[in-house]
# Entry
Amino acid sequence: MSDSTAGTDLTAFGPVSTVEEDRLAQYYAYPENLASCWVRANFISSLDGAATADGRSGALGGAGDRAVFRLMRELADVVVVGAGTVRIETYSGAQLGVPERQRRCARGQREVPPIAIVTRSADLDHDLAVFTQTEVPPLLLTTHDTAADARARFAGLAEVYDCSDTDPGGVDLGAALRTLAGLGLTRVLAEGGPSLLGTFIADGLLDELCLTIAPTVVGGGSTRIADGHRELITRLRRRHVLGDDEGYLYTRYSRD
# Structure
């Protein structure tokens, strides 16, 4: 269908073929031969733009969303989250089965991706699941002012990195990405929360957004998937739209 007034061609999607499980990874493959970090964000939203229900993003998900979530973790070198999301969503280390580990090894990746926590204060309880239920120690991406004390407090529990730039009391995401690239962790998966995504967008560092649209409306005062930072219009290109029988849509947009 063509809108001659607006000069826009509209496309009706469907019917389409089923995406077999062994082909799904092709839809979410990272660019090859990365020399620096490629930042992919994975979020879920209701139809009316809510990023959470009952305070948690997991309340919006379904079986298909959880399958795509697991696949993206399998493909990533590192999972980046904010400290608030670690607390609210009760994060543990990444859990992968034998087939996923074998595929990762075949791609030259470590068996399990570490969780990298962005935190200015490193004010995290030692008994959080991200420290106690994990095969690999998490990475704490923190400030110059906090790093030395954090290394002492989290010795044996986490690897701590100074990710400040000009402000010794702030985490600079550009510096954090350079740190991850130096560790060989270039396939970045950012999972939350809204403030962290807002910073990636505001700093011009977001390469790709994978957004699951849940077939629900939430209402109320729930936050958006990106929040708390200045606006920056970033044009992205649609890569795919997938759907399932429950009515969920799985979209992927990226830079050219």
Q: What stands out?
A: The two ends are 25 Å apart (CA to CA).
